[in-house]
Fold this sequence. Notes:
Blueprint: H1 20-32, H2 42-63, H3 72-82, H4 93-104, E1 109-116, E2 121-127, E3 134-135, E4 138-140, H5 147-159, E5 172-177, E6 180-190, E7 204-211, H6 236-249, E8 264-269, E9 280-281, E10 284-285, H7 308-320
Parallel strand pairs: 1-6, 8-9, 8-10
Antiparallel strand pairs: 1-4, 2-3, 2-7, 5-6, 7-8
Helix pairs in contact: 1-2, 2-3
Amino acid sequence: MPNGLHRSSSNPMKSVYPPQELLDDLCSRFVLNVPSEDLESFERILFLVEQAHWFYEDNSVEQNPSLKSLSLREFTSLMFNSCAALRPYIAHIDDIYKDFTSYKVRVPVSGAIILDESYERCLLVKGWKAGASWSFPRGKKNKDEEDHTCAIREVLEETGFDVSKKLKMDDHIEVTLGEQRVRLYIIAGVKEDTNFAPQTKKEISEISWLRIDELLSAGNDVISRGCNGIKFYMVGPFLMPLRSWIAAHHPPTTQKSDTFCKGTCVWKAKNISTGGPGMECQMTKQTADVSPIDTGPGKSFRNFKFDVASILQSMAAGFSV
């Protein structure tokens, strides 16, 4: 068992680590059997390990509740210890993982700002972890993926709503947050009674319509919270350009809605507390807890040469068995 991983004695049925045969299957499925170019950097390897982690949490743990739910950091350590191709690098796993989390915040993001028919409310999603902030539905781009394709995919995953027919390539707002470029397409005129529900597990805890005039634009001390105290770290920077876009595109015949006067939750995971005052949830679905991810900064590992040859050799040996 990797250093730092300990079994809990309080509930043995909930602390069983995945068996070697399961780890071997995950390593073969998500790491070894991929194009060779995906094995040329630790960033790509860790993205593959992250996919294996999602599969483990969403499928293996749910099918076998005795398996321990693992953070990405714990799961990465298990994979590096269990996979022969990755084991030589276990001594450097702390730096590799920290460098990966630092790299992730620079990957471009795309998503959508969904407006209701009155142009008065926007749809926001809340992350899964305790203390998560609200944001527009969005996510990181895959390798060589177009911005609008990423937006359609991520919004569908996080809300269950297909924006492809309403998306207009020129209607978008783009800002740079830190080192990360974020492009959000404006999708206007969506019915308030649309059914929303995430297609992914353990990623979104709540989906709500919130009034734009109750949100605060980015400023010296208001970027993180709205006037009702709710966290909006990823919303504030888009509000001023969004209000300008609405002023230019709002149909003059659109009637102001007298329903949903305050924030309205339209989907909420079971056992997740409401996001703040003025929200009344209309729908719940069952999900479960997940361990937090280590997101600390890491040392640069850019000059570390990844031994692709050894991995390809391991793959060849596996195929010959």
